[in-house]
Amino acid sequence: MSAVVRVAVVGARGRLGAFACEMLRAAPGLELVAAWDSRDDWRSLAPRCGAQVALEATRAGLGFEHARALLDSGLRVVVATSGVSAEESEVLDRHARALGLGGIVVPNFSVGSWLLQRFAAEAARWFEGAEVVESHHARKHDAPSGTALETARRMNLERERAGLAPFQPATPEYDARGQVIGGVPVHSLRLPGFYAHQEVVLGAHGELLRLAHDMHGPAAFAPGLRASLRYASEACGVARGIEVALENASRA
Ligand SMILES: NC(=O)c1ccc[n+]([C@@H]2O[C@H](COP(=O)([O-])OP(=O)(O)OC[C@H]3O[C@@H](n4cnc5c(N)ncnc54)[C@H](OP(=O)(O)O)[C@@H]3O)[C@@H](O)[C@H]2O)c1
Questions:
Q1: Domain made up of 5-105+218-251: CATH architecture
Q2: Tell me, which fold does domain 111-215 have in CATH?
Q3: Which of 87, 96, 136, 237 to pair with 105, CA 20 to 30 A apart?
Q4: What single string gives the DSSP state of each residue in 229-248?
């Protein structure tokens, strides 16, 4: 394996893809060899582009199918696109192993966002209810965000592990009470001025715990993105979650 990881970016003219291309041009040990968008016939170009890893950063809902196509082209994958479920990640894992390839599905590259999810999951067993408010720029194509769904899922899982029932939100029948995921109402704000923000509010009688994370620009994705590309370049099977790549980087 060469020391330099050669990378192709799918969705290169989008916000995340453009940031990744800029980062790759400056990152030691990583090299941008192809940058494709919706106008490019990337499925035909992928098998002979010389990349080891493809970063998939297109549109919510396309990540699973694109990742399969990239694996079929012989590339390992980092799937950044929102909306790839845990079940779809498992399908990709089996598919990659059958091909002798691998990669990682990373719903969020931010270290702070991952830590917020961990802390919220830990707190979930000690409170009587919890709600999530996620706020993003107005051009985001999905709501609730994949990150907020994952936060609610992890909180619910932690309660299940502790032998507790899911939270019972008050008055879930009203339209304005958010989308309820595993007993956690998730509320989405979309406005110019936001970048990516998440607050988890946990309540018990007489006290509230607020956990908040604010991202002001794509620079927050860089360490997780670099670690994911390096991890994917040698991966066998498709892992899920930034923690896998970060733990791998800390051992290197
Ligand atoms: N994992 C993370 O940490 C993270 C961080 C930020 C964003 N995201 C997710 O990553 C995705 C991209 O985000 P973004 O903000 O960069 O979105 P964006 O600015 O809308 O960019 C998406 C790009 O993908 C292109 N595209 C759409 N369909 C395509 C196809 N079939 N083949 C190739 N390119 C295609 C679009 O081209 P056209 O405009 O020509 O259609 C556009 O340039 C979203 O799902 C977002 O939620 C994940």
A1: 3-Layer(aba) Sandwich (3.40)
A2: Dihydrodipicolinate Reductase; domain 2 (3.30.360)
A3: 136
A4: HHHHHH-SEEEESHHHHHHH
- CB-ligand 1 contact for 109 (6 Å cutoff): yes
Which H or E run contains 88? helix 86-99
Length of the chain: 252
Give distance in angstroms: CA of 105 to centre of ligand 1: 15
Contact 99, 238 (CB under 8 A): no
Dist. CA 82–CA 240, nearest whole Å: 13
What ranges do the domains of the chain cover? Answer: 5-105+218-251, 111-215
pTM for this entry:
0.90
What separation in Å is there between the alpha carbon of 140 and the centre of ligand 1? 10
The 10s digit of each residue's pLDDT in 32-90 is 999 999 999 999 999 999 999 999 999 989 999 999 999 999 999 999 998 899 999 99
Under 8 Å between Cβ of 54 and 69: no
